[in-house]
Design a protein that fits this description.
Elements (H helix, E strand, L loop, with lengths): L2 H23 L7 H13 L3 H17 L2 H14 L4 H13 L3 H10 L3 H9 L5 H16 L6 H14 L6 E4 L6 H10 L8 H8 L4 E7 L9 E8 L7 H4 L13 E9 L10 H15 L5 E4 L1 E2 L3 H10 L8 H7 L14 H17 L11 H8 L3 E6 L6 H7 L3 E5 L5 H11 L6 H9 L3 H7 L28
Parallel strand pairs: 4-5
Antiparallel strand pairs: 1-2, 2-3, 3-4, 6-8, 7-8
Helix pairs in contact: 1-3, 2-3, 2-4, 3-8, 5-6, 7-9, 8-9, 15-16, 16-20
Length: 481
């Protein structure tokens, strides 16, 4: 059964349901958040499938017709009127305390679920319901920035979306120059790392034999990529984005490549922020590339460091406790020059100071929860990659200079070590790093800090220098993402 057939079937059921509703109790229209709340109560209390689909369609259509303030008011009604049934919950708690049987546990579990979770499930039955709910969560996430009372509603969306967008339901599809134009247009629009300015730019990333692009799709969002990755096939690990995207570069036959470079990962749906599937994307792409091109032996990223410049600015202001030596502070003073890249300065000295600061940023700087500060690092380290190489200058675009003073990073995905590295990071916050990265920390003037904290950074016995690094996830979508 095709997705189109299934969608047509739901639409037919919705039409039949609307007909039944017109005959039974009049047309269902929502002109305010109060009307929507009434329709939601009707949807939860109803049992008929056709009328339920019609009600769900009316609710979602009505929501999208409301203005911003009315939408926010409706989201608050989800908090106030569609939360827990407290009376039912207390009865279930008392029953479990009296007799903690399997049935009592199930009853307690059911009673502990907010009514809005079942409401969201029923709304999803409408034609286009999944896409509409993703858009509703976009609105919810914007509102959350100013209104923390909506956190419970977001947790319910996250809980349900984590199941609905389970990687087992997702389809990996290659994106190439023959992909339908409506999807290619979205690749241009959603690219979050290295801007695609024109259709010719897109063609340069998709058509050459040494380029690949893959995206995850969901059966209910047929023409909407959820996340995509751009891959360059090379014969060495790159340290700059310029060498990958240069207009005059000479493509190589895919059969000659030994390295796959993930140089851009972009999340496409803001409403799915926090729903993790980027790690599955990379692993599936690695497996597919290995099957198609057995000569590939190295899988790396060429990644930005979006928080490095901000962190370094704060670090340089600290009078005590900074991870930078006096000589590094002096070398980094050139960054105060607005036009510093064109200024006359000792490039090697600045390079060493920046790489020493970057090593401290990735290996020692931590959030209050003990995690690395960089979102892209958290993503790749959490996936089991190794922090392999620091590259400067790696990206001299306006954005690259603004966010990271031109720094780029290589993360290595070594298939035999992925699970071990993943466990080290998620269970002990260990950053697995190559000797090449760690030596920048040792060479810096911060020897005491390096010795004191060095035990946090495990270096595998087979670590080697000079492998590559990757991409960028929007910070507002997935962690690292």
């Amino acid at each position: 059964m095709s997705d189109t057939f299934f969608g047509d079937l739901l639409a037919s059921i919705a039409d039949r349901g609307r007909s039944l509703l017109r005959r039974g109790r009049g047309a269902q229209r929502a002109e305010s958040e109060s009307d929507l709340a009434g329709l939601c109560e009707a949807l939860l209390s109803g049992r008929g499938e056709a009328s339920g689909v019609a009600l769900a369609s009316a609710i979602l259509a009505g929501y999208e017709m409301l203005g911003t303030e009315a939408r926010r008011a409706f989201l608050h009604r989800l908090v106030d009127e569609f939360g827990y049934d407290h009376e039912r919950l207390m009865v279930a708690i008392d029953a479990y305390r009296a007799a903690p049987t399997s049935k009592a546990v199930l009853d307690l579990h059911s009673a502990a679920e907010p009514r809005r979770q079942e409401l969201i499930r029923r709304l999803n039955s409408a034609p286009g319901g999944t896409a509409a709910l993703v858009r509703m969560r976009e609105e919810l996430l914007r509102a959350l920035k100013e209104d923390r009372e909506l956190e419970g509603v977001d947790k319910d969306f996250t809980h349900l979306f984590s199941s609905w967008f389970n990687p087992g339901f997702l389809v990996l599809r290659p994106i190439d120059w023959s992909t339908p134009a409506n999807i290619l247009e979205k690749i241009i629009r959603y690219e979050a790392v290295h801007e695609i300015g024109t259709w010719e730019d897109l063609r340069d990333r998709l058509e050459p034999p040494d380029r690949r692009c893959f995206a995850f799709f969901h059966p209910q969002l047929i023409d909407e990529p959820l996340i995509f990755v751009e891959v360059a096939l090379t014969i060495s690990v790159p340290g700059t984005i310029g060498e990958l995207l240069a207009e005059d570069r000479v493509p190589i036959p895919a059969s000659e490549a030994n390295t796959a470079v993930f140089y851009s990962i972009s999340n496409c749906q803001d409403g799915l922020r926090g729903i993790s599937f980027g790690n599955f994307l990379i692993k599936q792409v690695v497996e597919k590339l290995k099957r198609d091109l057995p000569r590939l032996s190295t899988f790396v990223t060429l990644s930005p460091a979006p928080g490095f410049a901000r962190w370094l600015a704060e670090e340089r202001k600290r009078e005590d406790g900074s991870g930078l030596s006096e000589s590094e502070h002096a070398a980094l003073a050139v960054l105060d020059n607005e036009d510093w890249l064109r200024a006359d300065f000792p490039a090697d000295t600045l390079r060493e100071a920046l790489l020493a600061a970057a090593a401290h940023y990735f290996l020692e700087a931590r959030s209050p929860s003990g995690r690395p500060l960089d979102p892209v690092a958290r993503f790749h380290l959490g996936n089991g990659a190794r922090l392999e190489r620091l590259n400067w200058p790696g990206d001299t675009s306006e954005r690259g200079l603004r966010e990271a003073h031109g720094l780029m990073v290589n993360y290595l995905y070594k298939l035999d070590d992925i699970e071990t590295n993943h466990e080290a990071f998620v269970t002990r916050n260990e950053v697995v790093a190559s000797h090449q990265v760690r030596r920048h920390l040792r060479k810096s003037g911060n020897g005491k800090a390096s010795a004191r904290r060095g035990a946090q950074h495990r270096v595998p016995a087979n670590a080697s220098a000079g492998q590559g690094d990757e991409t960028h996830l929007k910070e507002n979508t997935q962690e690292g993402a």
